[in-house]
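lol ok so funny story. i was supposed to be doing the assay writeup but got distracted and ended up predicting the structure for this chain instead. priorities right. anyway since i did it might as well share w the group, maybe its usefull for someone
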Amino acid sequence: MKWLLGCVGFLLFEQSTAQLFKPETFIDLVKMNHPLAKQAGLLVEKAEAGLMAAKGGFDPALKMDASRKTFNGTNYFYYTNPELVIPTPIGLDIKTGIENNGGLKLSSESSPDQSSYLGLEMPLVKGLLMDQRRASLKQARQYVGMSEQEKAAALNDLLFDAYQAYWQWTGNYQLYQLYNRYVQVAMDRFKLVRTAFFNGDRSAVDTIEALTQVQQFQVMQSNAQIKLVNAVLDLSNYIWNDTSSFYLLPASFVPDTLQFSANQQPLAAGQNMQELAQNNPLVKTYQYKLGILETERKLKFQSLLPAVNLKANMLNKGYQVFKGFDAALLQNNYKWGIDIKFPLFIREARGNYRNTQLKIRETSYDLALKKRSVETKVRGYLNEIDQLRTQLQLVKASLNNFQILLRAEYQRFNNGESSLFLVNSRENKVIDYTEKTVELHLKFLKNRYAADWAAGILQ
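and the output, tada:
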């Protein structure tokens, strides 16, 4: 019941205590505290966490291989081989380590006693220009950029809905104030007509005519009150505090009716449509998707190449690998090898590569469609804004004329030269065109923000 009492209190609050709630203040609250805005921020944080994980593929690794065998009093062997592996961004792995091996049954391939080595391992064909580690890192960076665009798109949608709710509240507030004013006018006139009837200056029909007008305005006022309460509740859906707690719009807050009637141009007006489409967050998302797929294509292409991996180590006695470093050392103390592997039909690699190419074509079509859709939507909203501006001028001119006629009718009625029927008719026309003016302003604002929403620049 508290929320209902709050809404009723909003409607009954004295105007003298009213506090202006500007749309800029409202939108700042939405950006800072709305759960969807906070969720949008998490998209970037998750992508950055993925980037950190991808960078982990280039972290140096310390390995240790240690084993010993003693049986029946015989020391068969012992191995102590720590190794440091340092990956590099060019696909080359630098390896260095020391060995301490011994025993009666030591493997013939192992060097006895203490030794050290420094070497490298690198692909010569497959994986030379692109491998899984480099592809993952590049794609992770692209995912960070894409997540920023997804965040912008999510905020763009959220702010569009928030603006719609704010201006709907403003329109309903103005209509409710309009009916309040005319209910009071009709009530005052009914009291005067009733007093005149008791004095014998007006007929009973005039009192019925005046009362009917009061009742008609009261019905309109009641309907406007319901719509205003619902608009307040809808607007409150976007109002959260910094602890992610929802609360109702304070009863003393009133909307900015001056901006409601300002008819400002959208930010998208007068800008290059192709540039707007190119910079739209959803369009940029597709561009990042294409970048991610292009990286995948380069990686898949590597699978079409033979795997040729070179391993080379410089060896030395003791734990100082560079001790006595000279040409003779390089000629006599080394270990190298090469691994070659090449599937004969490479059907799996060809299929995966072709599939990635098709994904790129599919996403390119989506990108072209999205650009065209953005341009079409923005142009459509801008065209409708131009038409609404013309309609507003016509309706405002008509409203001004009806207000002049109403004031004249009031004067004639006070002079006894007119009837209540004509006064009521004039009032109904003024109210009708005031409603149309408010509705057109509301429609204008919705299209104004819709144009910026379609362009993706609300955030």
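The longest helix spans residues 347-414. Strands lie at 19-21, 61-71, 74-87, 93-102, 113-123, 253-255, 307-317, 334-341.
back to the writeup now i swear
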